[in-house]
């Protein structure tokens, strides 16, 4: 199928445009996070202060977009014919980018969800994909494409990195943060550590 940007966006539910990032993202509601939903109730967890559960993310139009993407995602996971269209449309939108982030809001819902992301990454070999997650159970025993880096996130502030090849942590001491976005008004700027598999852990300063 020959796609147009407008028709591809309509089919996938649109991409999100996080201001910090050098690229678009595909996000769903943070209120659907499984592990994150439990952590959000625990003081001292990274999810207790989740940026995607407050601010502009809870505006009605943003929540409507997040819900729309989740509806489309659920259909892609349930309908093989629509899945092929979804992968094709996502590949069209993503292949024009050097970088792509999965879930500036939300997280993996199932192993099938992760397999779908892997399929899209394989269809866009010239794009580097980054997926942060607190759901490593859905990632194990799935062949991850070389252009997709999965960073398993530590659940608590100042907690050591999980035992996975690529991880992320949150620290309360700015001097220990390897992500220096807080020095650039919250923006990535020229840094691409999160997409770099040779960087074992990225430490973010707590929001």
Fold blueprint:
Elements: H1 5-12, E1 25-26, H2 35-39, H3 60-78, H4 80-94, E2 99-102, H5 111-122, E3 128-133, E4 148-153, E5 167-171, E6 201-205
Parallel strand pairs: 1-2, 2-3, 3-4, 4-5, 5-6
Helix pairs in contact: 1-4, 3-4, 4-5
Properties at a glance:
207 residues; alpha/beta; 6-stranded parallel β-sheet; 5 helices
Commentary on this structure:
The protein is α/β, with parallel strands linked by helices and 207 residues long. 29% of the residues lie in helices and 14% in strands. It is built from 5 helices and 6 strands, in the order αβαααβαββββ. Strand 2 (99-102), helix 5 (111-122) and strand 3 (128-133) form a beta-alpha-beta unit. Helix 1 (5-12) packs across helix 4 and helix 4 packs across helix 5 (111-122). The longest helix is centred in the middle third of the chain and has 19 residues, at 60-78. The radius of gyration is 16 Å and the shape is globular.
Largest sheet: 6 strands, parallel
The N- to C-terminal Cα distance equals 43 Å
Query: Helix- and strand-based class?
Result: alpha/beta
What's the overall average pLDDT, rounded? 95
Q: Enumerate the spans where pLDDT stays under 50 for 5 or more consecutive residues.
A: none
Shape: globular
Number of strands: 6
Spell out the helices and strands N to C: HEHHHEHEEEE
**Strand percent estimate:** 5-15%
How much helical structure, as a percent, in the residues?
A: 25-40%
Give the strand order of the largest sheet, numbering strands 1, 2, ... along the chain: 1-2-3-4-5-6
Oligomer: single chain
Q: What is the tally of helical segments?
A: 5
Q: Whole-number radius of gyration?
A: 16 Å
């Amino acid at each position: 199928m020959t796609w147009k940007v407008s028709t591809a966006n309509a089919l996938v539910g649109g991409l999100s445009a996080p201001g910090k990032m050098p690229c678009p993202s595909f996000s769903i509601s943070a209120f659907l996070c499984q592990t994150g939903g439990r952590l959000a109730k625990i003081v001292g967890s990274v999810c207790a202060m989740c940026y995607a559960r407050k601010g502009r993310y809870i505006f009605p139009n943003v929540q409507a977009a997040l819900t729309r993407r989740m509806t489309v995602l659920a259909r892609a996971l349930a309908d093989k014919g629509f899945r092929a269209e979804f992968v094709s449309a996502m590949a069209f939108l993503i292949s024009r980018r050097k970088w792509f982030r999965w879930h500036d809001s939300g997280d993996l819902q199932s192993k099938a969800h992760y397999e779908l992301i892997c399929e899209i990454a394989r269809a866009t070999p010239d794009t580097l994909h980054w997926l942060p997650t607190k759901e490593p159970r859905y990632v194990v025993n799935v062949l991850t494409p070389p252009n997709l880096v999965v960073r398993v996130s530590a659940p608590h502030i100042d907690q050591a990195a999980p035992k996975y090849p690529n991880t992320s942590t949150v620290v309360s001491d700015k001097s220990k943060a390897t992500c220096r976005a807080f020095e650039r008004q919250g923006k990535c700027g020229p840094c691409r550590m999160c997409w770099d598999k040779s960087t074992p852990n990225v430490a973010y300063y707590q929001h």
